[in-house]
């Protein structure tokens, strides 16, 4: 980059920094003065508007060209896919809850699981579902209502329960062979999915075991649980989507089928078709904030990409790794890949998009340091998922925050798996040969 292009690249990052400053700054301020739901006082889709205006002002070209750039980012297939999952997840959650499915699952689970294992149990369930479905968002949409009810009944802190759910969801999102992140990582690095899975598994398993031990010590005492009578038939929609997920059925089919099954079972009782249709729309409406925010972040990230901001970040990361390369070029390049995808994820708040953006650069770094394709794919996927699971403005934290009625930052501070995986992954980079 010449001096002019470097300046433009630096300027293109400013809108993202402005959004983060507004979104987090306002929330932290209201939190400090004791306002309830501090991070919801200024809705995130509104907080991002100043950043979008700044991006329009900084980007060169006519207004019509700027609009095209913005719309291109909004229309990215990963962004649209995510938004559709929001809608279906919201509809399933609302219908299943209205028909009594949530209460049935909760009480059935409470009757089988000791209170001391509730938190590890929710983590395991979320991990299994996410690994089978290949999506953290779909998993959270299905598990969050159950986890919320369990937390309320068992007296478990909502922040910790939300952390258990997002931890399990990110475990599966990172490990699943049908996850978008896995597909993007393996294709960009040129390795087989099974090889990347094996490379990830040991790290993920160690982090998962440590996470379950941590969650075990946060579990409530057994006497805090009250189990009510339940109709197991009402829980069928959850068992049904779990079965479809394990069979590897597409996430859209899984959630759509879950909505239909929940509605049909409800209508076998006093649940009406009119109520069914209204609850579906109510579920759609409940996802309005994160739906809009995802679209707007997609448009903003396109301005950053076209302005050269991501390329500038990439070159900066590569220059930083030169210090470590004097000791070990292989370790330096793996750290470079990890830093590169993490910082990109901070900018675009989407782990799949981050992998797609930095994939080619990561492949060059891996080649220069003689890092195997399976290791570079693994590092890409792991650190993108770690970052995504710790972003207070990431889709997962926002969805859980909305579901649990807590601040997104409270969700990520209890994301023990992501924190644990960070240290485990670093240990593998420094101690294990690729």
From TrEMBL:
Coiled-coil segments on the chain, per record: none
Transmembrane spans: 12-31, 37-58, 79-102, 122-150, 201-219, 239-265, 335-358, 379-402, 414-431
Keywords, ordered alphabetically: Antiport, Cell membrane, Membrane, Transmembrane, Transmembrane helix, Transport
An annotated Gene Ontology molecular function: antiporter activity
Gene Ontology annotations for the cellular component aspect, listed alphabetically: plasma membrane
All copies of domain Na+/H+ antiporter NhaC-like C-terminal, residue ranges: 7-218
UniProt protein name: Na+/H+ antiporter
Organism this protein belongs to: Halobacteriovorax marinus (strain ATCC BAA-682 / DSM 15412 / SJ) (Bacteriovorax marinus)
């Amino acid at each position: 980059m010449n001096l002019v292009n470097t300046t433009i690249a630096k300027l293109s990052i400013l809108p993202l920094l402005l959004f983060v400053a507004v979104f987090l700054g306002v929330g932290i301020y209201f939190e400090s003065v004791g306002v309830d739901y501090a991070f919801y006082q200024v809705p995130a889709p509104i907080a991002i508007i100043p950043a979008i205006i700044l991006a329009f002002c900084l980007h060169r070209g006519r207004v019509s060209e700027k609009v095209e750039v913005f719309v291109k980012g909004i229309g990215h297939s990963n962004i649209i896919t995510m938004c559709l999952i929001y809608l279906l997840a919201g509809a399933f959650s609302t219908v299943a809850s209205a028909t009594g499915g949530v209460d049935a699952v909760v009480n059935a689970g409470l009757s089988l699981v000791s209170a001391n294992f509730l938190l590890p149990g929710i983590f395991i369930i979320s991990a299994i579902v996410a690994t089978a479905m290949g999506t953290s968002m779909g998993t959270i949409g299905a598990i969050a209502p159950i986890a919320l009810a369990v937390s309320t009944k068992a007296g478990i802190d909502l922040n910790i329960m939300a952390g258990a759910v997002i931890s399990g969801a990110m475990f599966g999102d990172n490990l699943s062979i049908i996850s978008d992140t896995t597909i993007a990582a393996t294709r960009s690095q040129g390795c087989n999915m099974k090889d990347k899975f094996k490379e990830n598994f040991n790290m993920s398993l160690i982090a998962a075991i440590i996470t379950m031990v941590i969650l075990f010590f946060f579990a409530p005492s057994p006497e805090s649980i009250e189990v009510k009578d339940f109709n197991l038939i009402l829980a069928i929609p959850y068992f049904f989507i779990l079965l479809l997920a394990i069979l590897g059925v597409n996430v859209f089919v899984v959630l759509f089928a879950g909505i239909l099954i929940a509605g049909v079972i409800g209508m076998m009782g006093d649940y009406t078709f009119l109520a069914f249709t209204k609850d579906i729309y109510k579920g759609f409406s409940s996802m309005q904030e994160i739906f809009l925010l995802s679209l707007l972040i997609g448009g903003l990230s396109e301005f950053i990409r076209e302005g050269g901001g991501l390329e500038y970040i990439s070159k900066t990361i590569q220059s930083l790794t030169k210090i470590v390369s004097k000791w070990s070029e292989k370790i330096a390049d793996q750290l470079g890949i990890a830093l590169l995808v993490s910082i990109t994820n901070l900018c675009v708040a989407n782990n799949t998009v981050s992998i797609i953006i930095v994939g080619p650069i990561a492949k060059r770094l891996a080649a220069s340091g003689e890092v195997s394709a399976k290791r570079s794919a693994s590092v890409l996927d792991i650190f993108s998922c770690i970052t995504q699971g710790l972003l207070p403005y990431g889709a997962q934290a926002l969805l859980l925050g909305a579901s649990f009625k807590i601040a997104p930052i409270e969700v990520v501070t209890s994301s023990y798996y992501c924190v644990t995986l960070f240290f485990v992954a670093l240990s593998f980079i420094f101690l294990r040969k690729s």
